[in-house]
Structures are given as C-alpha cells and as structure tokens.
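Example 9 (inverse folding). The structure is encoded as follows.
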C-alpha cells in the first residue's frame, strides 16, 4: 500500500515511524514532512495542507491507498470528505465529525444532550451577558473561545477580574479572531488531568494506553502554557477501573451520539479528561492524535497500525485484538530558548546519532535541513522518547538521550513524569 501522512510535527513523525513498520506499507510519503520523517518517508514540500484539491491531486498522482491526517486544521477543513469523494481511503473524521474539536459549543451541547460527564457551562455570543454570568458564578472559572485557537483560546481564571479581562480580550478585542465571537464559560474542575486516545470506526471504540502531558513551560508546572513539553504513558492516575469507567461513560456514548446526530466519527478520538472526586469528566475532545501524546502511546503499540487504521476506515475494528506492551514510555521535548514566546531558528543540532545509539527514539517536531545538516526550525524542536519496563527507567533513559543532544539555547523540563513517579512511590 502507498500511504500519505499529512503534517510535519513530532506527532506526524511518530505516525510515519510506526506506519513504516507495517508489512502492509510499500511506500510512505509525507506532506510536507520533516527531516526526521525523511528517514522513513519521501517528503513532499510545497503543497498547502489546507488545500483539499491539491492534496487529492497529490494522492492521485502518487497512487495513494491510505491518507493519514495528523493536525486538526485539515480535518475541520474537510480533507477526509475530499479524499472519500475521490475514492481514496483516509483515516480521520469528516468535517462534520471533526466539529467535536472544531467547535467547543457543539461539543459541550452534545455532551449535555447525551449525559456525558463534563463541566457545567453556558455559551455566549454577547459580551455583556458573558460578564453578567461571570459576576453571578464568581471564580475560579474557565473562559474558552469557541473555535480553533491553536491551543491558546482557554483561560483558566482564578479571580473574577481575570475572567472579566478574558471575556474582554476574546469578545470585545477579538484576540482569537472569529474563533472568539462565541465563548463557552464553564465551571472549574479540580483534579489530575489525563489523555485517553482511542481508535474508532464509528461503532466500536477501543482506548489506547492512557498518557499525561506537561503543558507548562517550566519545571514544577510553572510558566506559560505550551503545546506540550513532555509526556508519559501509561498515566498511573488512569487505573484499569478508571479506563473502564471512561470507556463506558464517555467514549462509547460519544461515538453513539455522533452516529445518532448523523455525524459518524471515525479515526482517533482524543479525550482530555479531568479525574475529579466524582469520576472522570471531559475537559475537551480533539479530533486527532495528541502531540506529544502520540510520541509515547505509539511506541507501546505492538499491533500493526496500518491494519488498525484500515479497520477504522472500513468499519471492522471489532474484528481486531489490539495489543500493547506492558512497559512505559517517556517523551522529553527539547525546545528553542524563548519558546513559547519568540525564539531564534537555524541553530545546528548535534548528537542525534548519539541519542539514538543510547536506545532512544528521536522524533523531529521543528527541524529543517540546511546544507546537509539538521537545524532548529520551530519552538518545539525534538521529542526524545525512551521505552522501558518502568516509568522510572524510561525517564532515566530519555534524559540520557537528551544529554547527548546539543543546540544553541536548547531548553527542556527536567521533571517529566514527576507526578507518575510520586504516585508510584505512594506519595
Ligand atoms: P483545553 O484547550 O480545553 O484542553 O483547555 C486547556 C487546558 O485548560 C486544559 O488542559 C486544562 O488544564 C485547563 N482547563 C480547561 N477546562 C478546564 C476546566 N473546566 N477546569 C479546569 N481546568 C480546565
Ligand atoms: N497535547 C495536547 C494536544 O495535542 O492537544
């Protein structure tokens, strides 16, 4: 089979790496891809991943049998619909199904209608009404721009003043453009967060191993929010019982609800969960694999990813018995100094081979090739991943890989998986 991966980040590198291991994969392409992906795929630069017609033409030219979509924007842009219309199989939800991520108000209204546990909320298109609601509810409270805002449209306000300022920025000043013309204001949920990704063919849904992301930039979960500074899987907070509860109360009902609403959901469903005293509740749904969750989840997958994705597309997922390894995986993100604010690009990266020799996987997130050398080209540059029988061993191994790699102004968190280690030590 010829397979095309859409995207260029660490998530897409991990997808390509895993797809390449399948005996079903003959030739792998990536659009646009990155220098790490080039080790397993032919990268095709110069095609806009938001141009469905150009992507369909590319898939036809390369006789692609399966398209795998990484990021959310092509999904909400209907790339899966476009491929299907051209008779090409594509893994991922259609435009209407991707609304589960693309519109927070759609997703919250669906959860309310079908009794899926989530924070209490109201939706507003009028700033004065939003302010009145904040005054009535008080803080802490959470303000969310309705549409896609590259992960930045959520403000967890610990005071009423912060909440009112967020309403002002999003609604009056349109800080996130049209994405903020509608806001969701919701109850603050207290608890530990975990990510539960799942494969689904629209009828059957099979959870992957759980994982946990570190969203803040600095050690001790301090500093600004980022796209994710590291991950580990499985997340000890997600006990077998909690995974079963989340599957029964959240995953299965949302898939049934989407089918009932005439928006059958196929692909990877990402449930961001808060483990509260009342059980798991949904923080958000994403219509795609998580980044950097994928970097720790897929290395633990023992089954063939191409076979699973085809089963999701074809509606035969219930026939498969998906196998996971028992160990743990840890990903430490190496970022450019200054990230998530401004940073410089173009610094040479040394030690990539040394890190691989230390038995770590190095997934490229923001790199480029310049004169035959790999250089930094983004905020998050690399994800260094290690697999081991325990989280502790995986942490130690991942940091050995990180120590082997150098580039100017590199920074990374030194405490990835600290919560897992504390929990496992019974603290
Ligand atoms: P989201 O983009 O919806 O995932 O929100 C970003 C982050 O904000 C989440 O990962 C949580 O840490 C936090 N968050 C979102 N909604 C809530 C909530 N209702 N209560 C507490 N924290 C939240
Ligand atoms: N790691 C968070 C996300 O992929 O949305």
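The amino acid assigned to each position is listed next.
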């Amino acid at each position: 089979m010829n397979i095309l991966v859409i995207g260029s980040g660490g998530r897409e590198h991990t997808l390509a790496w895993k797809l390449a291991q399948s005996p079903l994969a003959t030739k792998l392409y990536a659009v646009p891809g990155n220098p790490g992906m080039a080790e397993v795929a032919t990268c095709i630069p110069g095609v806009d991943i938001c141009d469905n017609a150009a992507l369909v033409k590319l898939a036809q030219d390369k006789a692609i049998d399966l398209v795998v979509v990484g990021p959310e924007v092509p999904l909400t842009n209907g790339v899966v619909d476009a491929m299907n219309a051209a008779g090409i199989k594509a893994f991922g939800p259609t435009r209407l199904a991707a609304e589960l991520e693309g519109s927070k108000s759609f997703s919250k209204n669906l959860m309310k209608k079908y009794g899926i546990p989530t924070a209490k909320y109201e939706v507003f298109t009028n700033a004065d009404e939003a302010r009145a609601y904040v005054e009535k509810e008080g803080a802490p409270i959470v303000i969310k721009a309705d549409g896609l805002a590259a992960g930045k449209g959520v403000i967890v306000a610990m005071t009423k003043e912060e909440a009112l300022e967020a309403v002002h920025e999003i609604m009056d000043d349109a800080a996130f453009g049209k994405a903020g013309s509608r806001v969701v204001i919701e109850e603050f949920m207290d608890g530990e967060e975990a990510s539960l990704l799942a494969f689904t063919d629209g009828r059957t849904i099979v959870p992957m191993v759980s994982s946990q992301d570190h969203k803040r930039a600095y050690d001790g979960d301090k500093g600004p929010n980022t796209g994710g500074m590291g991950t580990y899987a499985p997340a000890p907070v997600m006990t077998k019982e909690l995974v079963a509860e989340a599957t029964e109360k959240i995953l299965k009902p949302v898939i049934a609800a989407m089918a009932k609403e005439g928006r059958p959901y196929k692909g990877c469903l990402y449930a961001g969960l808060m483990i509260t005293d009342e059980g798991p509740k949904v923080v958000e749904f994403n219509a795609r694999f998580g980044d950097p969750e994928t970097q720790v989840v897929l290395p633990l997958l023992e089954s063939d990813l191409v076979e699973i994705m085809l089963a999701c597309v074809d509606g035969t997922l219930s026939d498969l018995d998906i196998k996971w390894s028992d160990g743990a995986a840890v990903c430490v993100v190496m970022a450019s100094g200054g990230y998530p604010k401004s940073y410089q690009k173009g610094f040479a990266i040394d030690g990539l081979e040394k890190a691989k020799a230390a038995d770590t996987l190095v997934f490229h997130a923001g790199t480029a090739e310049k004169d035959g050398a790999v250089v930094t080209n983004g905020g998050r540059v690399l994800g260094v991943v290690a697999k081991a029988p325990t989280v502790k061993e995986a942490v130690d191994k991942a940091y050995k890989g990180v120590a082997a790699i150098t580039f100017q102004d590199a920074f990374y968190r030194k405490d990835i998986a600290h919560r897992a280690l504390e929990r496992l030590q019974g603290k």
